[in-house]
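Lecture 7 notes: from sequence to structure.
We start with the chain below.
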Amino acid sequence: MRASNRTIAIAAVFITAAVTAFKFFFAIQLPLHPDEAYYWDWSRHLDWSYYDQGPGVAFYIRIFTSVLGNTIPALKLAALSAGLIAHILLFFAARRAGVSAASSLLFVCCTILVPGFFSGSFLIMHDSVLILFWCAAFLFMLRWIETDSSADLFALFACMALGFLGKHTMVFFGLSFVIWFVLTPASWRELRNMRLYAAIGFAAILSSPFIIWNMQNNWDGLGAILNLRSSGGAFANKSSTGAFVVGQALLLSPVWFALFLGFAFWILFLQLRNREIPRSLRSAMEMFRTDRSPEAAKNRFIWIIALILPVFFLALSRRREVQPNWTFASYAGIMLIFFVYRLEQKKWTRVILAAGAVVALAMNTFFLFSAPLTKALGIPQNPRTARILPHLRLAGSKEVIEAVDRQRQKIDPSAGILANRYQDAALAGFYLAGQPQVVSMNVMQRNQYSYWPGPEPGKNYLVFMVQDNTCEKATFFFQPVLYYMFEKIEEYPESEIVLDGVAVKRYQTWYVQNYKRDWKGLLLYYMVDAAILDFMPNMRGYNPGLNSAEGMASIQNYMNQNYFMRKGDVSCD
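Predicted structure tokens for the same chain:
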């Protein structure tokens, strides 16, 4: 590497580190995200894998908490460190893709500004581990195409395996490799080389914790994947395409999103113009594999890695609930395409790239300084806007936990604290003095708390439930179940957490005594013995004048009036 290139590489590392230090100052002041608390709780129970994802994020968090303790700085440093390493890897990936040192530095600066990357880097999630190893695998893939090194090939598959243990979305990197392999005839010689199969076997061994945990737990994690649990379930039928597309524009930066769509269609147009329109799959594949040079092979993979997640989740969004952030890993490939094709050197595209950077910078500034900026701009600070303003969206969780604990100390200091939502249980475990293990009832849901010990028989608890949207009266569907689970129930009225005059959280508590049985027993009893009284009351001699439809309607009316449509003095003006 020439001295000037080495200097630019050092500058890339320095800029990335400086931005990380700047973000750390803000990160330690932010409230803990519920999912961050959830994965932190995983790190206190290290295992082969977990119901929701692999063990990567738990072990990664444990590295930082072992040094800095179970603190917010430890969690935020874990998140930001993953982003720091990922951006440095992307600089070297750009160099391997044939981008000049100066343009690679500009590429890294742009990826730092991508709103999804910028805001997401403040949170330690399974995405942190995914993107770290996705970027590492990206670099080793480009290196392997160029060098044909066995070390790069093994490093590539190792990163794919470790990324998979962080988040299952890494499977799409493997799928990208397969698609690229099929479209690149020069790579087919590897089918006769034992090192490819050795690398695959090595990756399988590294991925084995996922298999081990599933073998121990009735393949529950695999079932969750196959049944599309995270997108509403296998039988869901709820389109989210509009929200998904808008989310991509916001998370990538609207200008860069529009530039990528326009450029992608332009490249496709040129391909079709220079060759006849493909009339079969075979001819379509031939269009993209005519050029067999290493540079063409690299560019082919960059396009695949840039498109695979957006295209898949766009298709899935037609009938499923899809979150825009699920495509984060593809943003690196999307941004790299701009620089591989030297758009930063063309006058009109350079202006668009700069405009995208300005828009992204403005969005990130709003994220960091949303409190003073929204007030200066006259944006209302009320419960309705609290759902979208960054400084209010996560506010109030710590205050809820502190208020619940004060109530517990007043009512029964020996009682435990019990939640239903796993996020509430995790936040309580983090914020309570001594950070005890807070259990979750998990009524009508399954998550990692389903595999950990539940409430202790004979023990008293203060149950709490949090409503994030304070514009709605809280719905606590599980209250009837409490009468089955405990010997005595005492309900307390709802309360609100008000910060700077805005109700940011609503919560309710119940003092429950003498835990007797799990909620699943009630469901089993109802389905086996009692449901007949509601579905076919006249056949059992129970209310002979009441038919099954009227019986079900009476249950629905009871639930609507008492739990689903409760009214209260809720003002969102």
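Points to note: The domain at 396-518 is CATH 3.40.190 (D-Maltodextrin-Binding Protein; domain 2). DSSP finds 24 helices and six strands in the chain.
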